[in-house]
Amino acid sequence: MKLLAFDTASEWCSAALLIDGAGSFRAVHAGQKHSELLTPMLSELLAAAGLGLRQLDGLVYGMGPGSFTGLRIACGVAQGLGLGADLPVLGISTLEALAEEAGGEEVLACLDARMHEVYACLYRHEGQGWRALAGPVVCPPLAAPMPATPGCIGAGPGFAAYPALCERGGLTRIVADAIPHARAMVRLAAPRYAAGEYGAAETAKPLYVRNKVALKISER
């Protein structure tokens, strides 16, 4: 199985290529340059492996939640490449990718949602993936879902942006530098592709969670 994955939902731009279980990846702190960096990054991975797009079995994209612009970039690239090369696509949650990066049995994944909020989801590891116990939600940091029992890992830049999150009970370890990396997404996607859980390129769509991107003056 040959899968190409990419994510532009956070300040990082990442890509990964999985070939029969072996992976290679790229990641760079992109700021606002995702649209400039992503296509060359994908081309580099394919060139290094000696592959063309049409030799892939599918594409994997970070569906969100995350930056509205970043999610549109990922979906647009998934649709464009998928339609051009006649490839199926599969979206993976950025929060589930954070859980996969952190490892463990239970993970609270948090991304900075700006506007004094976080995107959060509490996960438990099951089989080859993660089951959402609570979320995904967008909420004030201290309203993020918390584990009922000890042993949970906190993962993601939401913890770096809002240190008070780290002080809440039930978390045994914080991995604040974890990002929703494409290498985690492609690992999560492989068994789902094998099970036929993918769609046509035109079905690629973002998971926004929050529909509002700015506050009115009165709301500030």
CATH homologous superfamily of the largest domain, by name?
ATPase, nucleotide binding domain
Counted up, domains total: 2
Helix fraction, binned, reads 25-40%
User: How far from one another are the termini?
Assistant: 49 Å
Using the coordinates shown, work out and report the CATH topology of the largest domain. Nucleotidyltransferase, domain 5
Tally of strands: 10
Percent in strands: 25-35%
The CATH first-level class of the largest domain comes to Alpha Beta
Mean pLDDT: 94
Helix count?
Answer: 5
Order of helices and strands: EEEHEHEHEEEEHEH
Largest sheet, described in full?
A: 5 strands, mixed
Low-confidence region ranges:
213-220
Over the alpha carbons, how many angstroms does the gyration radius reach? 17 Å
Report the CATH architecture of the largest domain: 2-Layer Sandwich
Structural class call reads alpha/beta
- Order the strands across the largest sheet as they lie in space: 3-2-1-4-5
Shape: globular
